[in-house]
Please model this.
Amino acid sequence: MSRKLAVIGMGHVGQTVAHHIIVTGMADDLVLIDTNEAKVQADALDFEDAMANLPNHTDIYVNDYSALKDADIIVSALGNIKLQDNPNDDRFAELPFTRTAVREVAQKIKASGFHGKMVVITNPVDVITSIYQEVTGLPKAHVIGTGTLLDSARMKRAVAKRLEIDPRSVDGYNLGEHGNSQFTAWSTVCVLGKPITEIAEKDGLDLAALDKESKVGGHTVFHGKKYTNYGVATAACYLANVILTDAKTELPVSNFREEYDSYLSYPAIVGRDGIQEQLQLDLTDEELKKLQISADFIKTKYAESLANK
Model:
């Protein structure tokens, strides 16, 4: 069966996602969409030039919304990265631009007859994922934001560096908003066969400093090169591949939680049918309070986006 993916928005992140898809052979067909016709045509040609030296072949289609009708997954990577260059490192700085652009794109997606799954990277991701679901009318379980899949990876990197181990040997989550109100739920983090809280007490680990490091990691990358791409693109491709292969993997992604009446990042089992099962963590009272604050912040911003349609 042919696997068809689409990437909307071919900036730094979108082109990195598309490159990963082509190099790894994730898709047989790839649709690339961007408002900058010359740029997206150039990317398509560049990718075709790469194919003679790759073990896989991918057919590429450019700026054809009708080609989305039978796509398995659409990855939304559109945005205006220059708006992120603000003194508060606030992902919501992009919202006035993205809420308008995304509504237009979502209407075109709906008109195409698309009935697959959506992986949303566009910032602020929790609010934008909500808008995509609202406008397309797709089931909530089929519209998923990358959320804190990236922030959890940053936390694992920070912890692993401190303990001099592989980040894949660290388990646990950052939860809530993919933004400034997110937090590391240390009660979920295990390493070396033990809860990290136990190791922190014994070895004097500064968990507050590690939490900050995972939170500001993206800002550090951004200030160095004025965009981030590899970490988030890899998270998006991982999520897309989990859906494509029906892997039923536990991931901290942005999914709609009824009890918070909001999209936010919380672990769920992801497979071919999108969010297949929502987990229930045994969080501490302090963590529950932080999660509620994060949910309230996302809901407030989503309400603002509705008021400014």
Q: What stands out?
A: The chain is about 45% helix and 20% strand. The first strand starts at residue 4 and ends at 8. Residues 172 and 189 are 4 Å apart (CA to CA). The longest helix spans residues 285-307.
